[in-house]
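User: Here's a protein and a ligand (zinc ion). What would the complex look like?
Assistant: Let me lay out the input and then the predicted complex.
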Amino acid sequence: MQIGPYTITAIEAGEFALDGGAMFGIVPKPLWEKKIGVDARNRIDMRLRCLLIRGEIGGKKRTILVDTGMGTKWDAKGIDIYRIDYSRYDLLRSLAGAGIQPTDVTDVILTHCHFDHAGGATTAAGEGQIAPSFPKATYYVQQAHWEWAQHPSDKDWGSFMAHDFLPLMEAKQLTLLAGTDEIFPGIGFRLTNGHTAALQHPLITDGTTTLFYCADLLPTSLHVGIPWIMAYDIRPLETLAEKKAVLADAARNRWILAFEHCPLVAAARVEPTEKGYRIADVVAL
Ligand SMILES: [Zn+2]
């Protein structure tokens, strides 16, 4: 897909699975189960769908990656719990398929530092060392999120693994952002605080076509349903308000919503219904 000077491609970085009940919060299983199946351990299929944004800015080629999947620093227990599976899709393989080597990546936008978004940001480099996976890239995280990631609550500490993000600071490859300003022409942010503190959603626009990267505000297309809110969220009522505001803007302005974790739909536009919103048309990424 083309938006202004940017060519945008979905990068499938792997598959995993999370508890269906946790994914849909208060929605009863008989309702969500009609839309998505579970495995023997009540988990639903999930994707790790990153975004690759390529373009020339000020005569310089930029290769921008949005989120990095779960990475490869997992032990057998983690692989089992989250059913991490790189047999079909893999971050570096998908990038190579798009003609991109790790050293080509100039910028990495991390929506937030949860392990299923920042896990691929760093890689084990031997002898107990962990290094940035993209050695020439600048990584971007919101300052307020960076602080939260190091001092999470007793509820969400399990979603943060310091080895995913602290090496970025140590390698001096981290830029902390404060707010929604564009970091490149036509690439700005919207911030939400319901899922975690200061989650940054890339908002890419050329004035005509706009793409909003949902990250964990709407992790799947099923989360377009207003009360379909993950149990993982630290402030679910804020998620509710933020989601309603994003969906209203998306319906009104024909935004393309990109779903990071959805096994069913990669991207879509939405339209209002009597009760809320629904997927209007699916968009290929
Ligand atoms: Zn998250």
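Summary: The pocket of zinc ion is lined by residues 112, 114, 195-196, 216 (CB under 6 Å).
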